[in-house]
Amino acid sequence: MPETNSISSAGEELKELRLRLGMTTRDVTDLSRKIVDSEGNEEFHISNNWLSNIENSESVPSIYKLYSLSVIYHVKFGDLLQLYGVDVQKISKLQIEMPLPQTHLTPIEVFDEAGAVTFPIAFDRGFDRGKTNLLSRMVEIWGEVPIAVIRHLDVRHSMYGYIGLEDRTLYPLLRPGSFVQIDPRIKKILPLKWQTDYERPIYFVELRDGYVCSWCELQGNQLILVPHPSSGCAIRQFKYEIEAEIVGRVTGLAMRIVPPDEPATAETARLPKQP
């Protein structure tokens, strides 16, 4: 379908769509009755007068009637919304541009599996990198990436988190400033045996005042956050599912081996700048 139109032309687009399908307004009315029966809601009904009014004026249909048209015309609901200036593909980007005061979980929504989705290209320099957070809160610029590529990142079953520069809980195993992939399906502490620190399960944990990435132990109703022995951090204890909840198990890691704010050495500082 065409790009976002003005509301004045949206009705004309709907009329052209109906005519291309060889349907009369009566056909639409009859089919909408089946949707009403299926959903048990009269709001889905489309009358002759209503459809004629929508097609020949600047009136905006309700979400129920637009849903019915989407079903009857076999058109994506998002495409019909776009006729009225609502582009669902921009939801994720706009959510990033209008952050909430508190950190929160944000899923990556895919509305059109045959197209492309926005994906992070650049990160907001003004974001507080000192706090452990979720990736979706930090992105400044999003670019289009084919969904076929995104599938390989297991976006459907994963979330992404950022380890704040002040969060040294698992340092040096997991450095501040790292990005982690989280499997939200694994919310229970796994009773696994491990031989080295690298095999010990890591969890992304939501606290009342933020997030933390840590080894975890469950003792009764107490969730124990266990830091790396070399981190200098203390063991912390919270009431499980009251003061702390498991977001998921960390399954992947992207980590710098050079601190992002490390100053240039004397030798590199003397190198001439490239034009």
Q: What features would you describe in this structure?
A:
The protein has three domains: 7-83, 434 Repressor (Amino-terminal Domain); 99-157, no CATH class; 160-254, Umud Fragment, subunit A (Ribbon), CATH 2.10.109. Helices cover 26% and strands 23% of the residues. It contains eight helices and ten strands. It has helices at residues 7-20, 25-39, 48-55, 63-73, 77-83, 91-97, 147-151, 266-269; strands at 116-123, 133-134, 139-146, 159-162, 179-183, 203-207, 210-219, 222-226, 236-239, 244-254. The protein has an eight-stranded antiparallel sheet with strand order 2-4-5-10-6-7-8-9, with no helix packed on it. A two-stranded antiparallel sheet has the order 1-3. Strand 6 (203-207) and strand 7 form a beta hairpin. The longest helix has 15 residues, at 25-39.
